[in-house]
Amino acid sequence: MSRAVLSLGGNLGDRAGTLRTALRALSGEGLVARSVLYQTPPWGPVEQPPFLNAVAVVRGDRDAAGWLALAHELEQAAGRTREVRWGPRSLDVDVVTVTADDGTPVVSDDPVLTLPHPRAHERAFVLVPWADLDPAAQLPGHGAVRDLLAALPAEDVAAVQRWEHQA
């Protein structure tokens, strides 16, 4: 058994519908908790529409590669195509952390799956929803989610807005 924190986001098509579908699929994969949806500005150099984002915590009989495979399955089911790095997408699912059953964080420098996610500590769109679920959660090698969030520029945090159309 392992526990994973997944970050989900999308900015094409029915953003909310796509995220809800992915989150429903995760309920069959050991969903422990999920955040509400947040609207966030796009990340990266490509001009594009705003994202909806969420964080989910899952627990199951998968290793880190298994959680990545699940992330790719969810993206494929949502019609994701990988054309431009940090470009628009129907669904992006990142594996942020994986923790073994004994509580040991999985650390990997494999370029296919780097754990913990190498930029999670810089991303308000990951930290704000995660802090809603568990502000004391730890991002291995970086510290408590609440502390990481407090260290971000205030304008980055303020730009992550709870989406008003929750279902």
TrEMBL record:
Q: Which pathway is it part of?
A: Cofactor biosynthesis; tetrahydrofolate biosynthesis; 2-amino-4-hydroxy-6-hydroxymethyl-7,8-dihydropteridine diphosphate from 7,8-dihydroneopterin triphosphate: step 4/4
- The EC code for this enzyme is 2.7.6.3
Q: Which PROSITE patterns match?
A: HPPK
Q: Keywords in alphabetical order, please.
A: ATP-binding, Folate biosynthesis, Kinase, Nucleotide-binding, Transferase
Q: Which residues form the 7,8-dihydro-6-hydroxymethylpterin-pyrophosphokinase domain?
A: 85-96
A biological process (GO) of this protein is: tetrahydrofolate biosynthetic process
The reactions it catalyses are: 6-hydroxymethyl-7,8-dihydropterin + ATP = (7,8-dihydropterin-6-yl)methyl diphosphate + AMP + H(+)
Quote one Gene Ontology molecular function term: 2-amino-4-hydroxy-6-hydroxymethyldihydropteridine diphosphokinase activity
The record's InterPro entries line, in alphabetical order, gives:
Hppk, Hppk_sf
Group of enzyme by EC: transferase
Superkingdom, natural source: Bacteria
Its name, as the record gives it, is: 2-amino-4-hydroxy-6-hydroxymethyldihydropteridine diphosphokinase
Source organism of this protein record: Klenkia brasiliensis
- Tell me the classification of the organism that encodes this protein: Bacteria, Bacillati, Actinomycetota, Actinomycetes, Geodermatophilales
